[in-house]
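Exercise: predict the fold of this chain.
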Amino acid sequence: MSNIANSFASREGWVSSRVGVLITPASSNRLPSQPVNTGVLEQFLLVGCQIDVSDGATFGLGSSFGPQANVTISGQPGASIGVGGQLTPSISSKIMPGRIAEISLGQKTLSTNRASIRVRRVHISVDGCAGPTTVRTVVRFSASSPTADDTLNVYSARMWL
């Protein structure tokens, strides 16, 4: 949705999501070879900005006024004297490549074989960004057993702000 500031370089939106993890045996007749000692479920957003204009813009106005004299030698020789002036507007901005930020939406340590994290209508606001702005939900599950540490990341489709 359009942002409340009505700025070309700001975006805002809301995100709701629910993620969960359930640890089960690989099949009904096979038990895991190692017990899971610890497990952590995390949910976060990746927010991408195409062009960073957070340093702002500078607006200026240059001017020059004063006497002018012109002399013509070729063709018909002549001279003119007068007063003149000029105004020159200028705009400058420092444009940098976009950036990606990570926003935590929660972390849950497993105390049983399951866990979940639910967020509803989380407000996202991005300022100082020109061009498209996108968000992606990421779920990370890390588990540790006596013989291995494993981490799995799952990414949602990209959503436009």
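Check your answer against the key: The longest strand covers residues 57-72.
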